[in-house]
Amino acid sequence: MALGSIDTTKSYEIFGSPLRLLGLLAAAICFVALGAFFVLSPEAFGRSKILILGIGWLCIIFFGFCAVMGVLQLLKLKAPVITVSPEGFRDVRIANDTIPWASIQGVSTYTTNGQKMLIVSVAPDVEKQLNLARMARISRGMNAKLGADGLCSTAAGMDISYPEFLKMVEAFVRANQSVSQHNDTLER
Question: Which is deepest, 2, 23, 123, 160, by most CB within 10 Å?
Fold first, then answer.
């Protein structure tokens, strides 16, 4: 998805990219195979057999889970994953609810191991009302302890680059903050 200027009166739908998802799925399968090799031939590594077996099983379990999630994402490619609209921000990986712009206190970028994530800071009372997806609920506390305190969204596996994604969301935040500030001025 190539963006020119961003019209904040329009809605944008971001879909999963089949090629990116297939690449991530292939990588997960390779790591599962590597884990299986560790489990089936721990003596080939000449180190502690228990350590190699542990690493092997961890690879199989973690990357096996990633592969299953990748397959599920491939099956859901027909529906948009992220919607950025005048009403608010919606990422089905976070919640099925649309988060109104008035409830978004800010956005920032968190980078870990070269992976960039959009951190959406939401008013605490609104966040409590969101029906968070299971993975978002599980990872929320851990991400906060790592410095990513907010709801985390990413362009990984999507048909948009992270810089374009960030530019789009920031444009909507700015547009809605100026409307909100203008409304505050009118109410005084």
Answer: 160
Q: Is the dihedral of CA 147, 87, 159, 7 positive or negative?
A: negative
| Residues of the chain by 3-state class (helix, strand, coil), percent to 5 | 55, 20, 25
Exposed/middle/buried for 81, CB within 10 Å: 0-12, 13-18, 19+?
buried
Q: Which of 41-45, 100-104, 183-187 has the lowest mean pLDDT?
A: 183-187
Nearest to 83 by CA among 131, 160, 11: 11
Q: Concatenate the DSSP letters of all residues of 99-148 into one string.
A: EEGGGEEEEEEEEETTEEEEEEEE-HHHHHHS-B-HHHHHHHHHHHHTT-
Query: Domain extents for the chain?
Result: 14-75, 80-187
The fold adopted by the segment(s) 80-187 is PH-domain like (2.30.29)
- Non-local (6+) Cβ contacts of 179 within 8 A are none
Rounded to whole angstroms, the Cα distance separating 119 from 116 reads 9
Question: Which pLDDT score, from 0 to 100, does residue 3 have?
Answer: 60
Report the distance separating Cα 136 and Cα 128, nearest Å: 13
pLDDT digits (tens, 9 = 90+) for 44-66: 887 788 999 999 999 999 999 99
Q: Which amino acid is at 7?
A: D
